[in-house]
Design a protein that fits this description.
Helices cover 30% and strands 31% of the residues. It is an alpha/beta fold and 264 residues long.
């Protein structure tokens, strides 16, 4: 049974000094449990779209796999909320014990448990990409244009990955980290090189988002919002260019500005 991304439900709205009966759009919150080689690995609360990409991107960012060839099969049962993954290898038993967990869609708290694994899977960027200020502004504008369900509900995070010119892919989810995993999963599934790509993101650049970008392997992350001090420290350490407050034709560059070249 295919799950809907949104639902229209009745509400009571207060407006112009009176209550009126109307309807409003809600985003769907959907739990999916990942089973790897017959054993439970994690449960993710997400938006019920692009689930195979989400699973693939998530287990890759967690260090379970390094390449698509390590996947024997992925089967999604969205009627029951399960993703069955068969690998061509066994998972180390200690790794499974350290990573099995419930992952909330809530921002901030859900990724606090990652630090030990993050230290192993985070990568210093080797990206050689250079982009112009106009490309930064154009990519953020395109993300805003693509964010149709957010405009309808206000309940989703939006993200995209691009090379600044020809390649552009957009995904959305109630969980900001999930949106990035979906992009990563798509690129793994379609054998798309990631190193010289740019992440475009609707939310703030927190440490968890910066670490996720490093796991994916990109060298630039763009946001319409603010970064945190920890995120910027990590960006300097991991050789990632962090750009925030991309609004109305302006932006701030917080780290590794050498990748941005003004050609005007």
């Amino acid at each position: 049974m295919k799950q809907n991304m949104t639902y229209n439900l009745p509400i009571l709205k207060y407006q112009n000094d009176q209550f009126i009966e109307t309807t409003d759009s809600y985003v769907t919150e959907f739990p999916i449990t990942i089973i790897i080689n017959g054993e439970e690995f994690a449960t993710i609360v997400c938006s019920p779209k692009d689930l195979e990409e989400l699973v693939l991107g998530f287990i890759a960012s967690e260090g379970v796999i390094k390449k698509k060839s390590e996947i024997k099969s992925i089967s999604i049962d969205d009627s029951k909320g399960f993703a069955h993954v068969e690998l061509t290898k066994e998972i180390d038993i200690n790794f499974k014990k350290n990573t099995q967990r419930m992952i909330s869609s809530c921002c901030g708290k859900s990724r606090a448990f990652y630090f030990n694994n993050d230290a192993v899977t985070a990568k210093v960027s080797q990206s050689k990409i250079n982009i112009t200020p106009q490309q930064i502004i154009t990519m953020m504008d395109k993300l805003h244009e693509e964010s149709k369900i957010f405009k309808e509900t206000g309940g989703l995070h939006n993200a995209a990955i691009s090379d600044g010119d020809d390649f552009y892919l957009h995904r959305s989810d109630i969980g900001r980290h999930n949106a990035l995993d979906k992009l990563y999963g798509y690129c793994i599934e379609h054998d798309i090189p990631i190193r010289n790509k740019v992440l475009i993101f609707s939310g703030r650049i927190s440490s968890e988002i910066l670490i996720k970008a490093s796991k994916i392997g990109v060298g630039i992350i763009l946001s319409k919002s603010a970064p945190t001090n920890l995120a910027i420290g990590l960006a300097h350490d991991l050789n990632i260019t962090a750009v925030g407050f991309i609004r109305d034709g302006s932006f701030n560059v917080y780290s590794h500005a050498n990748r941005i070249q003004n050609q005007s």
